[in-house]
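Form 7-S
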Amino acid sequence: MARADYPEAVRILVDELKRLPGVGARSAERIAIWLMQHPKADPLQLSAALQRAKDEIISCERCGFFATATHCCICDDTSRDDSLLCVVEQATDILPLERSGAFKGRYHCLGGKLSPLDQVSPEDLRIPGLLRRIDGASTRLEVILALGADVEGEATANYLADLLRGKNCSITRIAQGLPAGGGLEHADELTLLRALQGRREI
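Output:
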């Protein structure tokens, strides 16, 4: 006797949902069934929103944050302090820093962190753009390394500190108010505020 299973269309939907970060097989099934059967679900609207985001959102060519044009709202903001440049791993790391209200400078997203196990090398990160921004600055910069406190984040911070020594910048690292092994996306605003205020030169 053949075992009952979802129809092929449902199985394909579940497989696509399982590809999302943090979504396992059971969660993917629940989401798929909810999208198909719940009266408040609107799969077509969800699909349209995904397509619009895919079509309209790009990475800012200068800093790497989310943008709808060549530059993002942060790079276009003339009220920001151009002498402060905060280096983060991902574009999503900018949002908790912005919500803390503690930082009014510029950002640079690396697009990841050094990880030999994942085959991420310096060539895979947005380091050349960072060097161009520092070399092209009209005033001396403070480069704040706001990278995670995990092994890869520490390795990336040390690599960048060595690379930037002797350039037209001072190098600081955010204070370790962040939990060991954690990233910026899990920290609350107060922790981020204290981490930025307690940064130190390296």
